[in-house]
Amino acid sequence: MDIRQLETLLRIVETGSFAGAADALCATQSTVSARIGALERSLGVELFDRSSHRARLTPKGQELLKPAQEIVALAARVRHQIGNTQVLTGTVRMGVVGLVALTWLPRLMSAVRDRYPGVTVVLDIALTAALIDKLRDGEIDLAIVTGPADEPSTSSVPLGHDEFVWIAASTLNLPTERMTPRELARWPVLGLSSQSHHYPVIERWFRAGGAEFKPVISCNTVRVLGDLTLAGLGVSLLPRHSYTAEIAAGRLTVLNTEPRIGPVEFVALYRTSATNPLTSAIAALATEISEFAGNL
């Protein structure tokens, strides 16, 4: 019995299959099967019921689960606290929302490479709801998403907030006086998809102002939404910080709307039961790198 075998067992439990564990460990499915087979032979018991499609632990496998978590967590802490970070190895599967990918993600990845050159990061860029589902299902280890996040059995690290404002291309010549949701709705509105964090926020904003949110174009990435706005196709709610240069150059105009939409919080989430301390270490590193306001 060795640490890799126990780590493999835990990945199978997290992902629900040998194939899922292979993807998470960047290994082949045959390697995963071989490790579990060797572990079973060393203990003289079967750990998984292979009669069903989803990998299920046998009663003996259930008995091993908690000790395996403790052993793997202890070994990982020893490597991280005592070992040289330059020689640490492992894989961290990290989900990131589009706004972070658009702005300071490259700086975070550069910092991870400098501090942990032997660590592999597998990135997944998606909307907050999808990333939280993947974190819950064990498909990713760490999620940088919009908050607040009241997700059971997870630890949340605050990364600051960004101000979102209504913006339009200057060529549209929108009114400079204050506009209500009903007045803004007279113009073509662009929006993120209905699965995004912002969709219900914008929907409530329009509804409270006696108007209906009817985007003429929807997409699932902030970058595309910004490009469409720059092209003069409509007004959209965008992060002010990310478009400072375009606003300063006069290409985009911040609209004077009332009421204001509050700042959006961002957090790093990981499962409280995570056995890999690299997950919490990268979450902490994200607080140092984050370009959002109030992240310290």
From TrEMBL:
InterPro entries: LysR_HTH_N (IPR000847), LysR_subst-bd (IPR005119), WH-like_DNA-bd_sf (IPR036388), WH_DNA-bd_sf (IPR036390)
Pfam families documented for this protein: HTH_1 (PF00126), LysR_substrate (PF03466)
Transmembrane stretches, start-end: none
Domain HTH lysR-type: 1-58
Single Gene Ontology MF annotation: DNA-binding transcription factor activity
Record carries keyword DNA-binding: yes
Domain of life: Bacteria
SUPFAM superfamilies for this protein: Periplasmic binding protein-like II, Winged helix' DNA-binding domain
Keyword check for Transcription: yes
Keywords, ordered alphabetically: DNA-binding, Transcription, Transcription regulation
PANTHER family: HTH-TYPE TRANSCRIPTIONAL REGULATOR (PTHR30126), TRANSCRIPTIONAL REGULATORY PROTEIN (PTHR30126:SF77)
Family under the similarity heading: Belongs to the LysR transcriptional regulatory family.
Protein name, entry field: HTH-type transcriptional regulator YofA
UniProt organism field: Paraburkholderia solisilvae
Gene from which this protein is expressed: yofA
